[in-house]
Structures are given as structure tokens and as C-alpha cells.
Amino acid sequence: MKLAFASDYQEGAHPKIIEKLVETNDLKTTGYGSDPYTIKASELIKRACGNDDLDVYLLVGGTQTNKVVIDSLLRPYEGVISPDSGHINVHEAGAIENGGHKVLTIKNEKGKISSQDIKDYCRAFYADQNASHMVKPGMVYLSQPTEFGTLYHKDELMAIREVCDEYDLALYIDGARLAYALACDENDVSLKELACISDAFYIGGTKCGALFGEALVTKKDLIPHLFTLIKQHGALLAKGRILGVQFSAFFEDGLYLDIARSAVVYADKIRDALKEKGYKIVYEDPTNQIFIEVTDQKMHELEKDISFSFWEKSDEDHTVIRIVTSWSTTQAEVDDLIALL
Amino acid sequence: MKLAFASDYQEGAHPKIIEKLVETNDLKTTGYGSDPYTIKASELIKRACGNDDLDVYLLVGGTQTNKVVIDSLLRPYEGVISPDSGHINVHEAGAIENGGHKVLTIKNEKGKISSQDIKDYCRAFYADQNASHMVKPGMVYLSQPTEFGTLYHKDELMAIREVCDEYDLALYIDGARLAYALACDENDVSLKELACISDAFYIGGTKCGALFGEALVTKKDLIPHLFTLIKQHGALLAKGRILGVQFSAFFEDGLYLDIARSAVVYADKIRDALKEKGYKIVYEDPTNQIFIEVTDQKMHELEKDISFSFWEKSDEDHTVIRIVTSWSTTQAEVDDLIALL
Amino acid sequence: MKLAFASDYQEGAHPKIIEKLVETNDLKTTGYGSDPYTIKASELIKRACGNDDLDVYLLVGGTQTNKVVIDSLLRPYEGVISPDSGHINVHEAGAIENGGHKVLTIKNEKGKISSQDIKDYCRAFYADQNASHMVKPGMVYLSQPTEFGTLYHKDELMAIREVCDEYDLALYIDGARLAYALACDENDVSLKELACISDAFYIGGTKCGALFGEALVTKKDLIPHLFTLIKQHGALLAKGRILGVQFSAFFEDGLYLDIARSAVVYADKIRDALKEKGYKIVYEDPTNQIFIEVTDQKMHELEKDISFSFWEKSDEDHTVIRIVTSWSTTQAEVDDLIALL
Amino acid sequence: MKLAFASDYQEGAHPKIIEKLVETNDLKTTGYGSDPYTIKASELIKRACGNDDLDVYLLVGGTQTNKVVIDSLLRPYEGVISPDSGHINVHEAGAIENGGHKVLTIKNEKGKISSQDIKDYCRAFYADQNASHMVKPGMVYLSQPTEFGTLYHKDELMAIREVCDEYDLALYIDGARLAYALACDENDVSLKELACISDAFYIGGTKCGALFGEALVTKKDLIPHLFTLIKQHGALLAKGRILGVQFSAFFEDGLYLDIARSAVVYADKIRDALKEKGYKIVYEDPTNQIFIEVTDQKMHELEKDISFSFWEKSDEDHTVIRIVTSWSTTQAEVDDLIALL
Predict the structure, then answer these.
(1) What is the pTM of this model?
(2) What was the pLDDT predicted at A314?
(3) Which of A58, A148, C262, D105 is found 20 to 30 A from B248 (Cα to Cα)?
(4) Please, which residues have CB within 8 angstroms of residue A29's CB and are 6 or more apart in sequence?
(5) Class of the CATH-defined domain B3-9+259-340
């Protein structure tokens, strides 16, 4: 069998989570998130965010969460500012436009956009005499870590927050891989700070050890009737308790904050080995994704023993591939991988 | 603790299913339904449907499945014919309209509409000189069992199929509680027949013993690019294997066909007891839902010991309540319930 | 040539309007409704409505106006209450659903619904324990006159307004044929009262003597960014002045209030003649539309000399047809029609 | 009064058109485009396009036409390729996204994109292993002339057509200012060729001398139920004959092909004068739009006597402004303008 480095969603769930699901399986609860596990998860998450004036909603997947939030936050005449590399702009099959909204792109720099970029965009919009014929920027979408594994630093996010306040933009942060940011030495943005700086963000479960699930955290009462909007999107889980059980497990002993530590350490190790062996690392990032450019011939050799993911063709003969570690990656797998590279 | 008869989605999953999830938890697979479990589930379901010219897609929930199918099957100028009591018309928070389509309602008779009703609707539409200013009927939505637990018989469905062919309508059947139909003596429509008569239908998991999940079965190539459409709806599960594992468990030893048998037997028993005690049964149905009208005073008495669900106010002083058995209901619970009524 | 009684939009424009269009044709103005004619029309309409705290927008057609207003007023989780006979529910090809919203129908009585109907609907909604899974009523749509030519009386509208306030519903009135209501003796609702009672309504031009055009009147600032929303709907006329010129002509000498007087008088005359000749009048109404049921044989006879419109099949052998007078109908045409009936 | 060079939609209609509207004003016709004028216009346009296998629909405005066509041609999983400068991408307030579709942008070169650009886009899409998670290109949107007044040459369009065939893309051309292209010496694409090369295009009326109106021309039966789709968009004119009369006037004596000749000649004259006076012409184009960059101080001077339009800020102190000639521009106005520059 090949060494599995293609993604961070290749297994079921972290042992502790699967154990809790088994343990609670026979208990009978009410549905749609009104059960005690969901309520407990919500309380634990608010506590971890150090703030009671928050609302927590548990959803099934990332694209689903992005679509629900953006559809619900924007008014019909508004669009969402996003890095051109943002997941919502590239890999969600037009989910945002399907909801009626334009993604207003800004060229990314290693997956990120800056407060200055956003300011320039808004200034140009409001200075344009045809602005009323154009899509008004209504919110900003970022991800932490970004699509390329890079991180926003606290001062960067605070500067973005300031621009958002100036131009009346909601700030929403996609945390599909948030555990990998939180576990990373380079990171200086805590969960509390994320909750404080953003209007809404989500704590990714699917890629961070849950069977599935994402915890959306918003400022209290940010989105009226969000429960109904979730239902309308086909995103309401009947047995909401399954999400509640998982996120309770993540947050009752701080599991979520630790779970990705080894993944990040191993990723660093692999990066070091790659550099040593002369590979070209394309986006230098500190989390669990590693992007290297290889010749197509090399790619075909590697794929005999290793499963990784295609990222993009860089030219006729070269491809960028992605190697990903996860909470479940072992030292032995890393050693084997390095030996094979 | 109260006796739990409020719904058929109060527990986790059937023991066999949870066991399979545990068993496969550590295995690494590719994502988005390309894994061996999903492929196996798809094969098993096609075999159970007695037909290879089918496509199977595994989704997370019922409203999600309805929304994806209807959005994808209809053209923008078309609407979906539904009983006025249909789930899509009443309890999906406007999910179908959110996708741009009108629900064209026909008054239900115990949750059902007839081939003649549909024929009359279409005849009137095509006879109307203003038809081109109106929403064209493009498909028919039914559920088996219906919202009221009643069943379509084979000859009824075949007559509806004929009308659908006459008026170029796709026929889609919502099987959220399909196991309860299949387990019912009164039922004369097999899985094979459903697959043959309909253009698309779904085999409900959530209410029939899965942790969650619905298996959509369509005529082969009915909906081009359905994978992308599922993604666009935020309905694509990254770890698709979790659905694959569950539906493999349902169909490898015929579990799905048996799982609801006790629920149906117990429901009959409860109905008999209710009649004997002089309760008014509102919709006489042969599956696992029991609808009775009680005074509000009686309702408040009952709810001290029993959890059931509110159905609708019938007048100032009376309410229709719903008692539901499930695959997990035990003889002891039924006895206790009868004693309390 | 046949006698033309099929609709009230069979000619170009009223002579005064076409004259003003010719007179202003060569003048150069800015576009998109920023021109002096549109500004003047807006001022004149506000004056006619006796209220400065209004916004006026000039649009091209009725379905367009309904769609823009309803899309813009409702939030995604809301629907619009309408008589089942309402134009938005029957003859707009699903325009409202295309915008994502459900039309919540109430059975009409001669085209109308009552304050009690709306109250009952809302009470049932808020009493329903599943309300958060359902479409929330967000506004009420009525037309004055209705689809069947009937009128709401002032006390009826005021009672509806009260229910709207109680349940936080916006009240929107479609005035496609408003001139025919205003010209009618039975009518007791003035333009000022309409502007006062409703949150938004439109003054129909197309069917009342304009070349085309409808004047939307809303409470001041009711819909933020409505200009952009109109553009987004493809409903913004580049040469907005053409609408401005027409509505200025309608309102500078009170033309609009008079224009339909003869149509209403002639309609009464025709109704009297029909009754005398033993025709069955289906909806007794006081404005310019006359609905009679005839045998299909009679219908085919009549259509040799008269153009009228098909309304609906009432049974295998009978059809309801509609005879319509307009601002342009002449005494001679009416006499000829009566002679032919 | 200022010299009016801000746009080509500053007046009412060309004298011949207004005359025809007056002449036909009293005639009674059926509605919604079933009248003899619309039928005649349609026949004349098909003749001018040299092809009977076409369908013609008359609509009111450009954004409306773009929205109706794109919404109707694309399937939900598809998007439309457009130059980033395309009207649909910049100045239609998100109308395309409001219809659920992504605009897939390609960087423009003077308003144009090349067949190679489109080929590269499609190749990259189909080579991407994540393509099924992305928006599939379904059609190409171009304008002739472009937003910057430039023209596609016949060989360029034919090469684009070839790529469209290769990648199964519909080709749609926005002809809002088509008369200015047809009247231009540099142009080598006739109406017949446009009709042949594209799947659909529209012949702009609003900016080319009509009171308003655009004639959409499609391959026969390209869009099923387009009439209903137009209605659903609120884009169906009740008195369709007003469009029919205008387009008949345009095409019965070849008026449309001549109407913009003087505008193009005058624009050349103005460009020559500007160059002589040392102005910086930003996009060199051969039609009726002239783009110059001036200091903001110069702009403020010019706007005392001339009305032109703002195009974009080029930097802190400079602005690109647009001077536009139209079918109604006179030699005297041009002389006055040149004297003032």
C-alpha cells in the first residue's frame, strides 16, 4: 500500500472521538441540535473563545459552512472580497455565485491579502462614479491557515479588522485547518483573538480529526434566523448530537489545541529533508501542507509509492504537488516518506 | 426519563453500523466518495435494485437530497408537482424556492396524490392559453411512505408513471422512511420496482438506523455533472467513506429490508391499543407513524411521561400529536407506552 | 377588423403622452433616471400622494416591478403572502421563486383576501412548533384592483395594515390597473390613502395609457440600494427620461386620475347589456374587466367579430372569457360590441 | 448648456423611429410580441442576417438581455468566460451572479480576449484534477465593439468559434453598440457573419438611436422556452409592438447599417484633434468612444463646458475620461468641442 500523504481527511476520526460516538450511541436525544451534547459543545467552544457573547452552530462541511454564512450575511447587492486563491473562489464549484453573490477577488500573495489591498479595493470602489452599477463589497473572506498553508499574523488581522470597520465589511475566517494553525510555533493568533477580531469564523473538524463537522462561531445575533437558513440550505443535521458529541470531545480537555501538533512537526521535518535533497518548495509555509514543484517524470516515479495530491501544472513538463501531514501521521510514515523522496 | 416516541432519529446508529464505522476507522482512503466503501455500497444498492443501469450517490440528509435533485433536474422555467402536504412544500424552509423553483401543489388525500390529479393538473396547464406565462410542470415529487405514513400501491405508482411519460415529467420519490414501507405487510412496492418506476428516488438512512445519510438512486446518467452540483450545494462529504461504510452495512446482508420490521409491528400494536382506549386516530396508516387527536388537556397530561411530537393544532382546544416507533423501539417501551395512554 | 376588447394594452400611448415624448425627443439628458423629467415626475407623484417622505422609482413593467420589490424587501428565510389568484402566483412564470422566495398562498374570495385570513395564517405559523423549519411570512402582496377587477375598501385595507403591523409584515400593493380603481365610483381608497396604508405600491402605467412604465412608490428609505438592485435585475432603463416624461404627463394636470373614467362607465354599460341578454357574469366587479361564462360554441361564434381574452376553462363545454375596456375604448366600439353580443 | 459628449443615450430616438411610433400609436395589436410589427422586425432582421434558421427576440435593455441569455444558456454547474473588463463583470451590479453563475474572467487586452486565451483557460481547466470541484466553462461572452471601443476582426472571431466548438462553449456577443462597429471602416465583420459565427448575439438599439430596445438573435431553437424565461425575468414588454415598430424602422431601409456612420467619422476627427493638442489617448479604438487621460485639474476645467464621462482614476492626480459621439452628434458640436479642448 502507498504511503498516504494526499490529504488530512483520509481516516475516520481521532480515537477519542470515535470512542465518544460509540459511548453515546444508544442514548436518545431530541434532534436538530437541541440535544445536550450540542449545547455542551457550544458552551465549551464559547469558553475556549473566552467570550459568552457568541453564537455557535455546528455544521457538516466546509463548503456548506462558507455558503450558509456568506449567503446569510450578504444582502443581494453585496459581494464578498476574497483572495483569488480562496477556497470559495476556486474549489467550491461556484457555491457562492449559486447563492447569488459575486466573489470580488484580490490577487493573493502566498494565499494572503493585506489590509492595504482591501483598503485600496474599497477606496477605488467608493471613488468610482459608477459604483451604484457595481457590486458593493459587503464582507471579507480569509482562511487561517490559507490554501497554501500560510498564516495571518495578529497584527495583520487587526489591521484588516480596522479596514473592515472603516468600510462596513463583515470579517469571516475559514478555519478548515485551524488546528494546524493553532499548533504551529509561528502562529500568534489564539482562538480568543480570532473570536474577537472576526465577526464569524469556523473551527474546522473534518480535516482536524473529526469524523466530519465544522463549528461556526459568530458574534451573538449576527445572523437572524440562522437556524432556518441552515435548514433551507439542506445543511441541518437531524441527529445534531453527532456533531455535539464530537466537538465536546474536541474541547472538553483541550484536544483540539493539541491534535495537530505532531502534524506540524512532521511537516517541518519533511520540508527540511526536501530542501536537503534539492527539491523546489513553492510556497514556504509553516503548517501541514508542503508544496513542491517536480518534473512530471519525477511525479510519476513518486506516485508509485506515495499518494500525494495534484496542485497545478506549472508548465508543460512540471507540476506542483502537495504533500500533507495530518493529526494521524506517524513518525514511521514520515521516515518512510523521507527515504522515498 | 420520558418514554421516547417523538421521532425515528433519536439515537445514534444501529449497532451493526456503528461497529463497521469503528472497524474501518483507521483505514486510509481517498475522499469525496471515490473510496472502496462507497463503491461497494453503490454496487450493493444497484444489485438490491436489480439493475445496473443506475447511478448511486450518497448524501448526508433528506432536505439536502431533495434540494440537490430538484435543483438539478428542473430547468429554470419548470416547477415540481407535489402534494400540498409534501415535505418540500411545508418543512424544508423554502429550500426548493431558494433554488429558484416553484412547488406546484395538489391537494393531498392522506398525504397522497393520484395519477388522475396529476393528469388534471397537466391538462389544465396545457389547455391554458396563458401557459407560456406560467410555471411549466417538470417533475413530480412523492414520498413513500408519505408524510402521514401512508403508502402508494404499485398500481398507483404505475399509473403515475404513465402520466409522467405522457406529460414529460420526471418522477422522484422521497424515501426518507423507506425502510418502514419495505417492512410493512400492506406494501406491494419493492426496491426493484421503485427503481424501475421512478427516475430517481432515495433510500433513507437517517430515520432508518444510519448515523446519517441517504442513498440517491437515479437512472444512469440522468443528471449530468451531479458530482459538481452536489459540491456546489455544499452537500459533498469529504470523508465520503463514512456514508459508504454505512450503506454497505445496510445492504450487504439485507439489513435495510429487515431493520424496520419491529417498528411497524409495534406501531400496529399501539394503534390497536389506542383504538381500544377510544382515541381518535387521524390518518389511518400502516407504517411507523401514529397520528391522534387529543384535547390540549390530555396532551399536557401525556407529555409528563411521554415524548411525542406536535403535528398541528386542529382547533382551539385540540391538537394532533404524532407517536413514532423506530427500528430501536423495544417491546418494553411499547408496553410502558400502552400502559400510560 | 375585429372589435378589440381583449386587453387594456392594445394601443400605444394616450395622445398627451405620445405628444410629450415627441416634444422632448431631441433634448439631451443624463441617463438612468437622473434627468429632470424623472425628478419632476417623482415630485409630482409625491405631491399627488400628499407626502414627501416617499421614494419614487420608475420601472418598465409590472412583473419586473413585483420581482424587484419582493426580491429586495424579503430576507432569504421569508416568503410573501398572496391570494392564490395573485398575478405573482399565477402569471409571472415563477419570477418570485426564481428570486428565491416562496409565495405563501391564501384562497381568494373574488380575488381578495381579508385581514382575518392573514391573521389566521400568521397565528397558525407562530403556533406551529415546527415554524423554524418553515418559510416565515415577511410581507403581503395584494392588487388594487384585483385580478378579477374587484376592489379593496378602505376599511379592509386598514384592517390588513393592522395585521401587518402586528406580525411585522410589509404591505405591498400591485396597482397595474390602479387608474381603473381610482376612476370607479365604488372606490373609496385615494392615492394618498394607498401611500399611507402600504409600505410600497405601484402606479400602473402600461395598462392605463402609458407607452409602458410603472411608478413604484415606497416609504422613504424602505429599500437600501434599490437603484443597484434594479440594475442587478436588468430593470434599469438607460434613457430613464422616457419614463419621467410619461409620468410627468400623467401627473401634471391630473390626467392619471381621469384617464380611466370612460373605461369604467363603458364597462358598466356592457355589464348591464350582458345581464339583460342573459349572460352569466362570473365575478361581479366594478372596474374595467368583465368576466362571463359562455358555452364553447358561443365563444367560437363571438370570436369571429370580437377579440376578447381566454380566462379559464370552467368545464368540458364552458369557458370563462374576459372582455376589457380601456382608456381608449370609444362609445361606438361599445355600441358595436353590445349589438354583437 | 454644456456640450453633450457623455454617452450615446442622451436623446430620445432617431427621428424616423419616433415618427413610426407616432404613426402606429392608435393601432390596436395583441401583446407580448405577437403583433405584426414584431413579426415584421423579426423577419427583417433574419433577412439582414442572411439566414432563416434564427430566432429573434426583442428586449428592452442590454443588462436585461445579457442576464436572460446567460441565465438561460448555462446549466447550474457552468460559468461564462468573459474579459475582466466585460460589462457583465463590471457594470451590471452582479446580475449574472444573481442568476447563480460565475463570471470566469480572462485578463483583457484593450477590452479583448483571444482564442488562445480561451484555449489556455479550457486546457488548464480540463487538465486540473480538481476540475469537478470547479465551475465548468459553459460559454464565452464578448462584446463588439468592446467596452473600450475596440473591434474583433473576422479571423479573431472565427478562431474563437473554433475553440468554442472544441470545448463545447456557446459563443454570445453583446452588441450594445453594434451599429458603431458596422459603420466603421476598420470593421470586417458583417451582420451575416456575426449571426453565423455566434450562437447568439444582440443588435443594440438603446445606444444606436432607438428609444430603447435590443434585438436578440439566436440560432433557431437554441434556448427552449425562452419566452417564458423572458417573462420570468420580468423582461417581457406587454406592448411588444413598441419594440417591433422600432426594429422594423431600423431594418426596413437599412437605417441601422448607416445610423452610426457620422458618429464614427466625428470620433476620428476628435481623436486627431486630441493628438494634435498633445492629449494622451489611452485605448486607441476605431469606434465612437474616446478615452483620454487628463490631470484632475484639466478635468475640472473641461467639465465647465463639456459633459463627458468618468472612466477611472489612473492615479492620485490623473483620471481617464471618456468622450462619446453618437448618431445624433452634429458637425457644429464637434467643432465646438475641438475648440474647447
Answers:
(1) 0.97
(2) 87
(3) A58
(4) A35, A36, A37, A241, B10
(5) alpha beta
